[in-house]
Write a structure and sequence with these properties.
The chain has 536 residues and is mainly alpha-helical. The chain has 21 helices and two strands.
């Protein structure tokens, strides 16, 4: 790979990361708006469908495009053109066959899925959701081809465009429900329709860029030369093994929600809880999901900005430099995750009131947000392993954590209701973190991954932040809790100022080394604080 191509690849990876961050923040925000408009029952309705919709999105956005981009890049590097008979058609046949099978499974097992979810009214919605998977092969093909020739803008813009249409459609549907124009179950139909419209808008953006740049590289579709053989075995293995594994590595939190979809309400009803009460409890429990998602994504994105500098080849050639990048990514992730968990734990009553208009479920959700620490650190660790070529293994770890979540739900929900589901999420993500850490130690022996963390600095910064938040909470909370716009200003100020205090003390007490700080964005400003730490 030439230096120019390497530069384009790194810039493209950064562009995709930014688009992913914007998309995930949108996803968290619109679910809060949806709950405000339709209440906990409406939120429950949406969350029962969201995991299946999310799986389709992950396959179309991350999994299969990654596999196709790998195949595309390989063919272009060999100087080949991508023909209809030798490339496009076999990929579409493989992906089309896989998704038709998947659609048939979802469609015909919809009654069983609805039974497992504890609500027969979802049969038609699950069958409608299956239609979304028809678009995935085409979306994945055009994303993968353009990524394979290092054109990341089409994927990034299509992702943002898709999310924008989805968010607008879902909020419009929620508003119509809140006005009584549609019944509450219309939220499910709006969710599926929003995903379909979003997918078609993404496809339109991808096709526009594809035809605009169709003569710019060897990726333009050509007539196949006679006698061209199709490497079916290679295509099937790359697409279905690598593609599904790559998608699973982006589904950690999604799979936790999938487990709750089919265990939470049925187990509560089986233990004697009324159907409406069980659905409301599920809606309250799901309030924690947007917060976990946005904090995990922000925390891991800052650390993952360092990941493109990591690869197995670089580890062999520049071991010291790569080790420093790995340690920095993990340290940043640990600091952000633990700081966020402690801060949110303290101010969660105000956050709950601000976002959802009451403090219902605060104690349960305080347990659930502990999962932020496990999810952030495990996602960073898994991303490091993937950069070192261990994509399938990390997918297996995520699959194991999903099984642990299902089993834990089945045992703990009957015993502790919502508390049981929160504990099950923390347990399953702890198992994932343990597996990832053990694999990191196996892959990187003799590297002080966690022993090198400045735990003393972390404790000092955390203690100072806790004291500050408790003092501010004691003085102001009672005055602002009932006035939403004042509460918004208060939560925004206390969150930002608490985070600044935490970061300031981390740097002042030597939580990061100078070489680690230099890797980070805006390092010049951070180094000024670091260099003045001896004066503390």
């Amino acid at each position: 790979m030439s230096d120019n191509e390497t530069s384009r690849l790194i810039k493209g990876a950064l562009l995709l990361s930014i688009a992913g961050l914007i998309s995930k923040v949108f996803s968290a925000v619109y679910r809060i708006v949806l709950q405000n408009l339709t209440g906990d029952i409406g939120f429950y309705m949406y969350q029962q469908l969201y995991p299946l919709l999310g799986i389709a999105m992950m396959l179309a956005l991350y999994g299969f495009p990654s596999a196709i981009s790998s195949l595309t890049a390989t063919e272009i590097e060999k100087g080949k053109t991508l023909s209809w008979q030798g490339f496009y058609r076999p990929i579409l046949l493989i992906l089309g066959s896989f998704h038709i099978l998947l659609i048939a499974i979802i469609y015909f097992t919809a009654p069983l899925l609805a039974y497992l979810a504890g609500d027969a009214s979802f049969i038609g919605l699950y069958q409608l959701t299956a239609v979304l998977f028809l678009v995935v092969p085409v979306l994945a093909l055009f994303r993968g081809i353009q990524q394979g020739r290092y054109e990341m803008a089409p994927t990034a813009l299509s992702q943002i465009g898709e999310q924008f249409i989805r968010v607008g459609t879902i909020i419009a549907g929620a508003w119509l429900v809140s006005r009584g124009i549609f019944q509450i179950y219309a939220i499910g139909t709006a969710a599926v329709l929003a995903s379909l419209l979003g997918s078609f808008s993404a496809l339109a953006i991808l096709l526009f860029f594809y035809y605009k740049n169709r003569y710019a590289s060897h990726a333009v579709m050509q007539v196949s030369p006679r006698g061209e053989t199709v490497p079916w075995k290679k295509y099937i293995k790359t697409l279905l093994l690598f593609g599904i594994a790559a998608a699973m590595n982006h589904m950690t939190l999604l799979l936790m929600q999938l487990a709750d979809t089919f265990t939470f309400v049925p187990k509560l009803i089986a233990e004697g809880t009324g159907e409406i009460a069980a659905k409301e409890m599920k809606g309250v429990f799901d309030r924690g999901q947007p917060l976990i998602q946005v904090v995990t994504i922000i925390g891991s994105s800052i650390a993952l900005a360092i990941i493109p500098a990591i690869s197995y080849q670089k580890l062999k050639e520049q071991r010291k430099q790569v080790m420093n990048h790995i340690q920095t990514a993990l340290h940043i992730g640990i600091f952000i995750a633990i700081g966020a968990v402690i801060g949110l734990f303290i101010i969660f009553p105000e956050v709950n009131q601000l976002l959802y208009k009451n403090t219902q479920g605060t104690s349960v959700l305080r347990i659930l947000i502990v999962a932020i620490a496990m999810s952030t650190i495990s996602i960073i660790g898994a991303s490091i392993l993937q950069s070192l070529g261990m994509i399938v293994r990390t997918a297996v770890f995520i699959g194991i954590s999903f099984i642990v979540k299902v089993c834990s739900n089945l045992i703990l929900i009957p015993l502790f209701e919502m508390y049981g589901a929160s504990i099950a999420t923390v347990v399953s993500l702890s198992v994932l973190l343990f597996l990832v850490v053990m694999e990191l130690y196996r892959k990187l022996p003799n590297m002080p991954l966690f022993r090198s963390v400045s735990w003393k600095s972390l404790m000092m910064a955390s203690a100072a932040m806790v004291a500050y938040l408790l003092i501010m909470q004691g003085i102001f909370s009672a005055f602002v809790i009932e006035i939403r716009w004042l509460l918004f200003i208060y939560v925004l100020f206390i969150s930002a100022s608490g985070a600044v205090l935490f970061l300031f003390l981390l740097l002042k007490t030597g939580g990061l080394t100078e070489s680690q700080i230099r890797i980070l964005p805006k390092s010049a400003y951070l180094l000024r604080i670091y260099h003045g730490r001896k004066q503390l």
